Amino acid sequence: MKLEREMMRGAGPTAVMQLLLNGEMYGYEIVEALSSRSDGVFELGQSTLYPMLYNLESKGIVSSKEKEGPNGRRRRYYRLTVKGKKKLDTDREQWTAVIKGLGALGVTRGTANPGLAMEGGAC
Amino acid sequence: MSNAANPVSSDSLLTPCRSFFSHSFSKHWKLDIQRSGLPEEVQNLIETVVVKSRLLRFEKAEIATELISHFQDGETHGRSHEQLMNDFGDPAIIASLFRSAKMRNRPMFMKTFKGLVIGLGVMTAAYLSVLAIFHLGQPNPRIDYLVKLNGEIAEIDDSQKAWLLYRPVWTKYGLSEGGDCQFDDLFANDESGTGQRLAKPTDASWPQAVAQLKEYRELLDVFRVGAKLPSLGLQLQADRNNYSDEDFAALFPGQDKTSKPMGWVVDEKAEELLRDSLLNISLPHIQSFRKVARALHVDTRLAVERGDSDRAVENIETVFGMANQAAEPHYLVCGLVGMAVAGIGFEQLEEVITADPDFFTEPQLAQLQAAIERMPIRSWIDFEGERAMIKDVIQRCYTDNGKGDGRMTASGVDLLASASVWMLANSPRVEDDVDGVAYAARKFMAPAALFMCASRKEVNEKTDELIDRCMVDAQLPYWQWSDPEGFQRETDAFLEENRIRHALLAMMLPAHTQILNALNRTIGRQEGVIAALAIHRYYKTMGHWPSEVAQVSPEYVNEFPQDQVDGSLLKFKCIDDQLMVYSVGRDYDDDGGVDHGWMTHGRRVPHGRAQFTFGPRSNEFEGDWILWPQNVSPTDETAEK
């Protein structure tokens, strides 16, 4: 399942930040990781990742550096900044709240608020 | 501390700068793509995205590097280039995303620089537009104010024009400015030894003065004849080339027509506009009347010494006739010189009568009184010349939309700037500044005049409003003015607040109150002398002084003169065979003819010769204003010279 553009616009940066929490990564590596580790949910149009990274960089959330990789090729590596880590913490709390809220509304499975569900059902 | 805690953040700040400097000058992204070893279609795709991003060179290089790595890494991860291209997305959209992201990520100095460039561009475009509008507008003078100014004179018959009589001797003796006629021997050192005054029979240098009068007898005789005519008859010209050769030789001794009249206009177009304007009229003849009046004053002293009362009467009448002729063109400066010449006549008359009340016969006094009454001094100051001059300058500074409105032009700004410097500094050295910074700055800033200067219509209307008010006041004695101080105060405040907007008016509008004070002071003196002559005539006829006005008027004067201060009849008293005629002065009280005078430069000066000013009642000016006799002191004469 792939996310719609609007959903990706909100969740994509958080997903990228989460990946970079463990260390620096280069572009294609991020693309691959997003796709494989999210079961294809965050399968970006590959090149849209880079503008997203530049935006995060302009906000000081990630930083980049061009350097030589293990295979001898020069690549640009991205890493999370201190500011980015704080931002990820905030995003994490917000997403948790969103999921909880959606669950309470019965949007997500297993967490429905019976009262609201009944109300919805009555309608 | 903060750097240690946040090392990555500072690195991120520096990255765009590093990228800028590392990629700007060293790399070419197309070469990188070609050397990437990627299939041609992938290279084309990358190149398309990079080109369409329309970013700066170093940013393109960054994107190229990133995308090359992307495709190389994709292949390393086992993806075919076809798959990678399929997953890549629409190049146009991608390029657009890259562009907006990269622009957002640009270093602050680049954003600032871009803002400055855009701002500068907008300002330059706006300035060029304004510049074009400014320079496209050209003044188009349509009204020949000179013809209007000379119109009345042109209609006068030549037989009534004194100038045609004066001109030959004027030329022969070099009477105008720059000529040989200085009448130097008519002056002697004053009693203080620090200045000069007109020679008296008691002076050691008197014989030289008498000899000089003899030397200039022809000149003075011509003036005695010419001054009897009602008009000077000199038609003034703005462009000196328009004077006849005879007029030019008389007015500009030692000069030729090709010489530049004023060296103060720096711009050729402005000079062309100025050449025919009323502002360019010079009045080289005007001070000559004062010279001749002083010569006649000395000649009157000679006549008194010789007991020749007819000659003295003729001299004094000549001075009054010249005063009238000097004031002929409707320019304030001419009117002011006319008043000064009349003042010289009053002094001569008073000097003779106070020294010897019996010198003149009663008919001679009547003749002199009539000559004084004939001088229409109030009409000499009518501000019409100034109105014409201002309006002439307006039409030479502004465009004309045919509906009475227009905007300031480049030539107009040049004309005004040059004229203002000339008026303030009276210096022709402005032309030296053509290459100067100030001149360049003025040229650059000049288009702002489109927004900062009042429109033609507005200036015209304001000119009419102010000049109309000046003209109304000029026609009335002080006591009939309506709030003159308020008007002057309001006018000064208006011009102060609108120094740029109404620069033309601020520069050219005459000082209303000062001029009208001078006018009413001279008329006050005239009225005082008329009253004194009438009373002296009564005395000569009756053998005693009158005790009231009714004894003098209407037999010796139709209407006894009024006080210019409050409109009451002038006061007079006679003590020890000395007559005194006086005004109540600024305290508006009859102090019995006591003049407490006016403190100036640490000394008390009689009001009559000092700057007696009209104004609201004030005890600061305690005492009366003595109109007859004003007892001219040698020091005052020196100041006059």
Task: Profile the largest sheet of chain B.
Answer: 3 strands, antiparallel
Looking at how many chains there are and whether they match, the oligomeric state comes to: heterodimer
- CATH domain fold name of chain A: Arc Repressor Mutant, subunit A
Mean pLDDT of chain A: 80
As laid out across the biggest beta sheet of chain B, the strand order is 3-4-7
The string of secondary-structure elements of chain A, in order, is HEHHEEHH
Structure annotation, total helices of chain B: 28
Distance between the termini of chain B: 85 Å
Largest sheet of chain A: 3 strands, antiparallel
Gross morphology of chain B: elongated
Share in helix of chain B: 55-70%
Written account of the structure:
The complex is a heterodimer of chains A (123) and B (641). With 123 residues, chain A is of the alpha+beta class. Chain A has one domain: Winged helix-like DNA-binding domain superfamily/Winged helix DNA-binding domain (Arc Repressor Mutant, subunit A), CATH 1.10.10.10. Chain A has helices at residues 5-20, 27-37, 49-58, 82-104, 114-122; strands spanning 25-26, 62-68, 74-80. Chain A starts with a helix and ends with a helix. Chain B has 641 residues and is mainly alpha-helical. Among the domains of chain B are: 12-106, no CATH class; 157-230 and 283-380, no CATH class; 543-640, no CATH class. The model of chain B is unreliable at 1-14, 427-432 and 632-641 (pLDDT under 50). Classes of the chains: A alpha+beta (123), B mainly alpha (641).
